[in-house]
Structure to design on (292 residues):
């Protein structure tokens, strides 16, 4: 089912993001996580694509297995970095054949620390908007999500133009926007208002990722370049004696964010799970959802 159609249902939608495991053991652990998350009844789940355009096989395997073994609606991430138009066509054909109705079209980044510049492959796509247009034209039945950056994309020097670029993705055929994670809801509300002013009227899903350890804090800082980590949160974490205490603080912070987003009637909340269920389940339980 198209995520755009699901998002027309009048409720706050939950969705989960997973990354593809590379070993059987990690794969089994992920399917256990998914089993635990199923009672939350997510509107969809998404599967990331490897950094720097790597790991195509792992993403495809997980997407196809989820389709075969679960009732979930799935969005497969695709990145344009290093990919030729033929690569994207091959992946899209595979997904359509497997009955996948949704993809997330992303540009991708060169590997961290490589100093390399972004490069598409042969007849590939310089920006995500171009890939969105290609998918819309050639696979009109497939739903398309795109990325949004409430605090700005780290490479964009001009915040006004950035909204034009985001609008170009929507005008090219994107059905919804999923945001980079953020810790301050005002940033998200302001982003939604700026989208409205720019004439962007598709649903916007709020990206939430609870800090669960010192290691996860550093991972977040690395993944979400440009995302502001509030001093109040950092101060609370600095007082914590161990990771268990940090997890409590991070889960509490994310719960407060989710309560507030819920009360503000936003379209949906996209949890960056890092393939774990504990924090997400705790947040949803505190929201009053009955989860066994
Ligand atoms: C929800 C979400 C999911 C993600 N999933 C993945 C994943 O699975 N795998 C992965 O590798 N990465 C993923 N990323 C990271 C993403 O690939 C990078 O952040 C990337 O740098 C930006 O991708 P984009 O699709 O927004 O690119 P674009 O929209 O193409 O933007 C890239 C840069 O180009 C600028 N730009 C756009 N159009 C123009 C134009 N016409 N002229 C000049 N400048 C322009 C933008 O402002 C921005 O600075 C994800 C990010 C988010 C928020």
């Amino acid at each position: 089912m198209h995520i755009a159609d699901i998002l027309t249902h009048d409720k706050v939608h939950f969705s989960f993001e997973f990354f593809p495991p590379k070993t059987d053991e990690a794969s089994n652990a992920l399917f256990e996580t998914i089993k635990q998350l199923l009672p939350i009844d997510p509107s969809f789940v998404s599967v990331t694509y490897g950094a720097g355009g790597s790991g195509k096989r792992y993403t495809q395997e997980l997407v196809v297995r989820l389709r075969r073994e679960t009732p979930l609606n799935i969005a497969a991430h695709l990145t344009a970095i290093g990919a030729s138009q033929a690569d994207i066509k091959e992946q899209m054909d595979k997904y359509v054949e497997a009955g996948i109705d949704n993809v997330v079209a992303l540009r991708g980044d060169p590997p961290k620390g490589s100093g390399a510049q972004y490069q598409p492959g042969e007849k590939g796509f310089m920006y995500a908007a171009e890939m969105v247009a290609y998918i819309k034209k050639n696979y009109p039945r497939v739903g398309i999500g795109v990325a949004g950056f409430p605090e700005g994309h780290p490479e964009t020097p001009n915040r006004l133009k950035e909204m034009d670029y985001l609008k170009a993705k929507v005008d090219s055929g994107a059905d919804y926007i999923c945001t980079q994670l953020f810790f301050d809801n005002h940033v998200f509300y302001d982003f939604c208002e700026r989208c409205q002013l720019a004439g962007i009227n598709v649903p916007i899903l709020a990206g939430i990722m609870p800090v669960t350890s010192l290691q996860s804090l550093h991972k977040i800082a690395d993944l979400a370049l440009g995302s502001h980590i509030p001093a109040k949160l950092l101060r609370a974490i600095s007082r914590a004696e161990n990771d268990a205490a940090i997890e409590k603080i991070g889960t509490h912070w994310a719960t407060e964010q989710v309560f507030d987003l819920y009360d503000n009637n936003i379209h949906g909340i996209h949890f960056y799970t890092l393939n774990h269920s504990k924090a997400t389940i705790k947040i949803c339980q505190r929201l009053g959802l009955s989860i066994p």
